[in-house]
Write a structure and sequence with these properties.
Blueprint: H1 3-30, E1 37-40, E2 43-47, E3 52-57, E4 64-65, E5 70-74, H2 77-112, H3 118-150, E6 153-155, E7 160-163, E8 172-173, E9 178-184, E10 189-192
Antiparallel strand pairs: 1-10, 2-9, 3-5, 3-8, 4-7, 5-6, 7-9
Length: 195
C-alpha cells in the first residue's frame, strides 16, 4: 500500500468517524434520555377552617374528585346560631345609629338657636359616631360568622386524587388540622437531569 492508499484510508476513517459523531450528536439532540428523572405533582393539604363534629363525609381514600366536589360537612348548627345572633346585633346597632343621628341633628338645630350648649351637641354627635362605629363592628362580626358558616361545607379546591384520608362521620375536627391530602392532577410534571 502506497502513500496515496494510506491517505485515502485515513481520510475514509476520519469521514466515517465524523459521520458517526454527527449521527450520535443528532440522536442525542433529537431524542435525549436520562436515567435520573422523576414525575412530580403538587400536593394540596385539606384542613377544616372551623372546628366541630363531621356530619357528612362524601369521599373515600384514593378517590378522584373534581374541583368544587363536596369532601365533607361539619355540623353547622352553632355557626348558624352565631349568624342569627349577629344579625340581631346588627339590627340593634342600626336602630341605635338612627336614634343617635336624629338626636345629634336635633341638638345641632338647637345649638344654632342657642337653646342648648355646643358641648351638649358635641356629646350627642360623639354618641352618634360611637353608635356608627359599633354598627360597623357588628356588621364585620356578622360577615365573619357568615364566612364561618360557609366553611362548614368543605369542597375540593383542585382536580385530583384523595390520599391519606382517615375520616368518619362523628369525628371531631379542629380548625387547621390536616385531614387529608389531595394530589393535584393538573400539576403533574417530569423533572430530569440531562448531562
Amino acid at each position: 500500500m502506497g502513500q496515496a492508499g494510506r491517505m485515502l484510508l485515513t481520510c475514509g476513517i476520519l469521514a466515517l468517524a465524523a459521520g458517526l459523531g454527527y449521527e450520535l450528536w443528532r440522536e442525542y439532540r433529537l431524542y435525549p434520555w436520562t436515567r435520573d428523572g422523576q414525575v412530580q405533582a403538587d400536593i394540596v393539604g385539606i384542613a377544616a377552617r372551623v372546628s366541630g363534629p363531621m356530619v357528612g363525609v362524601y369521599v373515600k381514600d384514593n378517590q378522584f374528585v373534581h374541583k368544587g366536589d363536596k369532601l365533607f360537612d361539619i355540623d353547622d348548627s352553632t355557626y348558624a346560631a352565631e349568624v342569627a345572633n349577629d344579625e340581631a346585633q346588627v339590627a340593634l346597632a342600626k336602630a341605635k345609629v338612627v336614634e343617635s343621628q336624629r338626636e345629634a341633628e336635633r341638638r345641632k338645630a338647637l345649638v344654632e338657636q342657642q337653646f342648648v350648649s355646643v358641648e351638649d351637641y358635641q356629646q350627642a354627635n360623639a354618641r352618634y359616631k360611637e353608635d356608627a362605629a359599633a354598627q360597623a363592628a357588628a356588621e364585620a362580626k356578622l360577615k365573619l360568622a357568615q364566612l364561618n358558616l360557609g366553611y362548614t361545607k368543605v369542597v375540593s379546591p383542585v382536580n385530583g386524587f384523595i390520599t391519606n384520608m382517615h375520616l368518619a362521620v362523628g369525628t371531631y375536627v379542629t380548625e387547621g388540622e390536616a385531614l387529608m391530602a389531595l394530589v393535584d392532577t393538573d400539576s403533574f410534571y417530569v423533572y430530569g437531569f440531562f448531562p
